[in-house]
Write a structure and sequence with these properties.
Its EC number is 2.1.1.-. This protein has 203 residues and is an alpha/beta fold. The protein has one domain: Vaccinia Virus protein VP39 (Rossmann fold, 3-Layer(aba) Sandwich). It is 35% helix and 25% strand. The protein is built from five helices and seven strands; from the N terminus they run H-E-E-H-E-E-H-E-H-H-E-E. Strands 3-2-1-4-5-7-6 form a seven-stranded mixed beta sheet. The longest helix is centred in the N-terminal third of the chain and has 27 residues. It is globular.
């Protein structure tokens, strides 16, 4: 019964995320590598944006997602290799992958800088880090005030999610060779996560 309720919940979340971010994710992943790493893959929400036959090296600390990941991978025709640990220390060789993808995950990692430099470590020369993240609103705006008010309960309720991280600036300061970044506001009722950034960082 609990498993069915969980699957129903993830299905609802999946529809919402696809409606709000699907077109943007599809564009970000256009021409993606044949093999890529996805950090914080969760239940496999992003497999639908990949070409059939793609190999996804999944970095997902929660092993409870493994069954859903395999089922969704089979449905979308992608191959998965699952690693159940956080992205701060990946058991992958230096300069071994062409692309790393992260979506709505850097808000909840313990150390953003450590994760981003770990991403750089595993990327080949000219490899790409593709990202989509919600971020801290501009100072003194009403959204920034809301973020400040709700940050503690939000973090507790949404499994460690921080609503006021300057993720875009952290990526820009990580010494990638080139960073293309776009700021946008999500059309969402969840006010604390309206401001977003997305883009590509090239090693």
């Amino acid at each position: 019964m609990i498993q069915k309720i969980n699957e129903w919940f993830f299905l609802m979340v999946d529809r919402y995320m696809h409606t709000h971010y699907g077109e943007r994710k599809q564009k970000l992943l256009e021409g993606h590598a044949d093999t890529l790493v996805e950090i914080g893959a969760g239940y496999g929400a992003n497999f639908r944006y990949l070409r059939p036959g793609t190999k996804v090296i999944v970095i997902e600390p929660k092993s409870s997602f493994n069954e859903l990941l395999r089922r969704r991978a089979k449905y979308y025709g992608v191959e998965v290799e699952i690693h159940n640990y956080g992205a701060g220390t990946m058991n992958l060789k230096d300069e071994s992958v062409d692309m790393v993808f992260g979506s709505m995950v850097l808000c909840s990692v313990e150390n953003q800088v450590k994760v981003i430099f770990e991403i750089k470590r595993v990327l080949k020369e000219e490899g790409k880090f593709v990202f989509l993240e919600h971020v801290k609103a501009e100072r003194d705006t009403w959204i920034c005030k809301v973020q400040h008010l709700v940050k503690k309960p939000w973090k507790w309720f949404f499994d460690g999610c921080n609503v006021n991280r300057n993720t875009g600036k952290v990526i820009q300061n990580a010494h990638f060779r080139k960073v293309e970044i776009q700021e946008f506001n999500s059309r969402t009722l969840f006010v604390p996560i309206i401001p977003h950034v997305c883009g590509v960082a090239v090693k």
